[in-house]
């Protein structure tokens, strides 16, 4: 049974999911709330998708985890169905729900287009996320790309399998040095800011010293700092 929201718990949540003033309401957009309370395409019966391609990122033991299943029309290579499950917070649920809609609407995305989907695209459709929750939107697109690779492997089209760009730094969450470089180029100049964009080090904390070295390297490379 859920616990009642008391003034103390309400205060603890301020600055996270609710605004500091009562008249402003939640920081989450109406679209985020809709997809959290009524998620689209959530996986109900895995046995019905035993033949579907599947991609997984993360680990429940380390925090967030994401699984994505896709059905694809082999003639057009369009995604006709997408299901998902996540071990994560409300923002992760909402962003993955929206991703599933984007991938399957209007006859379904081609897999080439689906591979290009970015967390920023998902957040834009959601109407934004609180700054401290942006990192929750980065797992769905990675799991989708893993599912696309799985489909190509099963179809015998191994030439279309794409390895994530760069060298993998966080082996649990599959975060690469390219992801870190992109985060720094996007203005993340500290470890905390890079983690907010990529979640690196939350899956595999042992990689944090290497992450900090990469941040310094890319800051000096691009900004002379």
What order do the helices and strands come in, and which of them pair?
Layout: H1 7-13, H2 30-37, E1 53-58, E2 65-73, E3 78-87, H3 90-104, H4 111-115, H5 119-126, H6 139-154, E4 168-170, E5 175-176, H7 177-185, H8 191-198, H9 208-223
Antiparallel strand pairs: 1-2, 2-3, 4-5
Helix pairs in contact: 2-3, 3-5, 7-8, 7-9
Fold and architecture overview:
The structure is a single chain. This protein has helices at residues 7-13, 30-37, 90-104, 111-115, 119-126, 139-154, 177-185, 191-198, 208-223, and strands at residues 53-58, 65-73, 78-87, 168-170, 175-176. It contains 9 helices and 5 strands; from the N terminus they run ααβββααααββααα. The chain is of the alpha+beta class. Helix content is 41%, strand content 13%. The chain folds into 2 domains: 24-160, Sufe protein. Chain: A, CATH 3.90.1010.10; 163-225, BFD-like [2Fe-2S]-binding domain (Arc Repressor Mutant, subunit A). The protein starts with 6 loop residues before the first helix and ends with a helix. It is globular and about 50 Å long. Residues 1-25 have low confidence and may be disordered. The strands form 2 sheets. The chain has a 3-stranded antiparallel beta sheet with strand order 1-2-3.
């Amino acid at each position: 049974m859920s616990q009642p929201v008391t003034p103390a718990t309400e205060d603890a949540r301020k600055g996270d999911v609710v605004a500091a003033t009562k008249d402003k309401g939640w920081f989450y957009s109406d679209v985020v709330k809709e997809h959290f309370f009524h998620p689209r395409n959530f996986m109900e019966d895995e046995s019905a998708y035993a033949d579907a391609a599947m991609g997984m990122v993360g680990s429940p033991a380390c925090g967030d985890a994401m699984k994505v299943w896709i059905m694809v029309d082999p003639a057009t290579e369009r995604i006709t169905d997408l299901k998902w499950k996540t071990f994560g917070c409300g923002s992760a649920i909402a962003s993955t729900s929206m991703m599933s809609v984007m991938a399957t609407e209007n006859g379904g995305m081609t897999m080439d287009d689906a591979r290009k989907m970015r967390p920023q695209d998902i957040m834009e459709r959601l109407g934004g996320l609180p700054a401290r929750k942006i990192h929750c939107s980065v797992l769905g697109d990675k799991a989708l790309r893993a599912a696309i690779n799985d489909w190509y492997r099963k179809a015998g089209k191994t030439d279309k399998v794409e390895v994530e760009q760069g060298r993998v730094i966080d082996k649990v969450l599959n975060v690469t040095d390219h992801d870190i470089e992109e985060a720094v180029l996007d203005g993340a100049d500290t470890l905390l800011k890079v983690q907010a964009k990529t979640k690196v080090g939350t899956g595999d904390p042992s990689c944090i010293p290497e992450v900090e070295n990469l941040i310094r390297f890319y800051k000096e490379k691009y900004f002379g700092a």
